[in-house]
């Protein structure tokens, strides 16, 4: 280009008078400016295209209560995965105040839609109530993956919606825990179940797994109550159980947070040895109870990896993969045996 401009300049100077030389010089300057502007525009377009090529998908992780150690571990696992794969996606982590705050979780989904995320990985607080807002998200072109607590299949069908589930078989996991507990009891022993939220599918499945085990091993289930995943509520329920059933031999809690509440009551009542206790989730505090023989067993569903499983699968779908359910591991945890 410089050769062409020099040729233009020499030709103009030779043909023009002194007066016209100045006018031609201005014309040539304008011509050079146009060339430079064109080159500048070309560079900008290339840079802009380059930026769009490296734009990372935005992934929103929406969990249940961040007051629950299980979901704190889930968030930490997701953040660690993102730190190791930050060039592949951007991560936004959200959670609600407590397990029953459905309105806030719906609001979080709406907020993530408003800021234009590409992916929502959600552990719904309720298996039914979140379906309408998630349908809006899917209709908006967002990839939605369900983790931890499975959405209600009948409600999904009514909404003509398909959302892949990535998570464990909660019923099978609870049955493993119940079967291990039964080996420590006599047939016909009185047991009580403290379940999760009544409308949460994982809570229903864990309750069913406990009931399967107790029925098959000949135990007598004297009480089933919903502790709503809350430690304080489980404490209240356990206190009433201890007073109402003097021959109670075991309490089966659908998560470890509720087991912590039950354990505190049993210790205060001096019944930690008489009444055996099991949980589900294998949070750090439960490991301490196991070590001190105040918890017989729990279940490990690898909360620190569960969100990662969901994120990886969502990115796979975003890249053209087929959405389908994926089972993740769940293992029995005892004082003597860990996976």
TrEMBL record:
GO terms for biological process: transmembrane transport. Signal peptide: none annotated. One of its GO terms (cellular component) is outer membrane-bounded periplasmic space. Gene3D superfamilies: 3.40.50.2300. It comes from the Bacteria. It is found in: Periplasm. Residues 59-321 form the Periplasmic binding protein domain. InterPro entries: Bact_Solute-Bind_Prot2, Peripla_BP_I, SBP_2_dom. CDD domains: PBP1_ABC_sugar_binding-like. One of its GO terms (molecular function) is carbohydrate binding. Pfam families: Peripla_BP_4. Belongs to the bacterial solute-binding protein 2 family. This is Sugar ABC transporter substrate-binding protein. The lineage of its organism: Bacteria, Pseudomonadati, Pseudomonadota, Gammaproteobacteria, Alteromonadales.
